[in-house]
Amino acid sequence: MYCRKCGNKLEDDALFCPECGTKVDREGMNQDVNSNADAPHYQNAASGQNNMGAGNATGDNNNEKINWREYLTMENIERFAPIAALLPIGMAVVVSVLGLFLFNTLGRIGFGYVICKILIFLLKTLFILAAAAATGGLVYVVVKTKNMTKVNSWIAPVATFAAFISCLGIAFGWGVVAWIFGVVSVVFGLELLARIVIAGQPMDSPVNPGGAFNTYKQYYDNYKEKYPTTKDLEKAGIVDPENSKFDGAGIDLFGYSILTALVCTVTCGIAAPWMICKIYKWRLSHTVINGKRLTFTGSGGSLLGHWILWEILTVITCGIYGLFVHVALRKWELQHTYIDGEPIVANGNESYFDGGSMAYVGYSLLGGLLLAVTCGLAYPWVMAMIQKWDTRHQVINRRRLEFSGSGLGFLGEYLIILIFTVITCGIYAPWGTVRMNKYIISHTDFVNE
Question: What's the pLDDT at 181?
Fold first, then answer.
């Protein structure tokens, strides 16, 4: 006698299936299940969904139990395997970036600091649980699926188990252990991503590192063909002079970053406003919106007074005012941003930022919640959401801006930046920032132009 839902062999006097918990319906049980006994486990589970009412009834035919094992199908779990194997990278990046964001937003002292520590702990726990669940699910599928090639099938569970150990190491500061297992899981994860997700092969297909490289190359070529950059269009001679673009170079930002770190260290942070203005001036001088190049007129001396006031208010309010510093800085920046070559009316309120601090805090908290729920996977979409809000509140020379980018576009850029940043041990970060600026500016336009 066999279970109608999972195909597990039952004892003659069994009332419930010990495997999936389904109530035994003895009428027609042997006849229905024997015909499917040789089918793979996940196919039997899928066919058993049609009999949920008969197997899961608890006295009321209208109340049906939904068994979580119904979702542990080969198709669903094998697609999650590459993502789970890459969780250590996601955990390291998301915890670092989100931690820095939360500490800068909520503050590093007082109640805000406690909230930051709790949120980061919960985020680490979610990553660990996700890696553990993925490992258990993959082992379950491999063991229960009879027709899988055993050696190849165990690659994915081993990779996700390494990811689980690495996530534990990151959470508890195991240093070398986290790094070694992280490298193993990421290497296998990249191969699984190419083979299973991009190429569409099953989980038990042969491992092929060379084929993975070709798969990524083909995917990148297709992406470039579908979404050409401004530089690609310029080379092809079809670029529109009214397009938006960012023409700064990564080596320039790298130099500014080194200079900023040295100067701020020597001056104990006093020179920070001047270095911020220098980077603003460089960034905006390389920003072109609909063919109009921008310029920045702010100075470190004018920012210094605001900077000191913000620091004092943040300390007095135990970090709470830190939530409003971002918008205050954006307002100051936009007040000194203009279109190069166009006349500026003194005190004419030509350029400004009209976004509110409470709206920014709301978007930030919503973004943090989405990141926590999705273990950081929603980061590109969260950034697109915040970028759209930020851009539509910018007015330059009485022209309002809009952003047309998408989370999918951010995802493609972040994957490339993440891979190169990891390979270069973080050296690629300035070039990654420039690459992201190029994407953002290329999707930014003046409204109705």
Answer: 93
